[in-house]
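Tokens for chain A. Residues wanted.
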């Protein structure tokens, strides 16, 4: 998802450092200091307009959440919503998902979410996919030993690639759904904006939950 430039986004970000970090390397190992309470910390890489992470923060006040987004316009939209809601368990990062080990200390994250990431369908671009082994190595580093990775996509090719990539990396699968919205095992699915629109038109959503073997 590529958004048009929002001229208001940068000034809004600069005016609200209590909710958003633009220098996340300064907080490595100290993210709990950004929250009212020290609680298990969850991270969404590529938060888009923020519907998923905001609804998660509302639904699970006993957990802390971080939305990480590369696009200034998108994180600005999330920040606007957070300024209205002022959720005490939500923080934002304007940053790159390729730099997670610079932003977070080992085992600092309890759960990590990848929702409808860019599929990068051309073979020559497979290293850019967020489930490529180099990204998995970063996730393994920052996740708690008992932490989990949740991945959702509407792209069958990316889902198949991710299953193979994670399996080859030595990860274990806790849950795999080939049609999430028709899976009777699912009772608490929180959707992204894109997921709602795509599924409402009959599109199939794929999901997996996995963990690293220690």
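Reply:
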């Amino acid at each position: 998802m590529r958004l048009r430039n929002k001229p208001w986004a940068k000034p809004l970000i600069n005016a609200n450092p209590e909710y958003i970090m633009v220098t996340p390397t300064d907080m490595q190992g100290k993210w709990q200091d950004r929250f009212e309470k020290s609680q298990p910390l969850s991270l969404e890489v590529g938060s888009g307009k923020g519907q998923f992470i905001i609804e998660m923060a509302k639904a699970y006040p006993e957990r802390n959440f971080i939305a990480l987004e590369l696009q200034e316009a998108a994180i600005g939209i999330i920040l606007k919503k957070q300024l209205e809601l002022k959720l005490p368990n939500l923080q934002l990062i304007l940053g790159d998902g390729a730099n997670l080990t610079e932003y977070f200390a080992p085992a600092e994250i309890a759960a990590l979410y990848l929702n409808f990431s860019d599929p990068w369908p051309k073979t020559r671009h497979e290293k850019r996919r967020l489930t490529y082994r180099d990204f998995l190595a970063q996730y393994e580093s920052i996740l708690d030993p008992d932490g989990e990775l949740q991945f959702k996509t509407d792209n069958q090719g990316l889902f198949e690639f991710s299953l193979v990539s994670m399996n080859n990396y030595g990860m274990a699968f806790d849950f795999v759904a080939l049609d999430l919205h028709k899976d009777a095992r699912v009772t608490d699915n929180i959707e992204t904006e894109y997921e709602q629109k795509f599924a409402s038109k009959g599109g199939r959503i794929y999901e997996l939950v996995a963990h690293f073997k220690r």
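Strands lie at 20-21, 41-45, 64-69, 90-94, 109-115, 143-153, 171-177, 206-212. Residues 116 and 153 are 4 Å apart (CA to CA).
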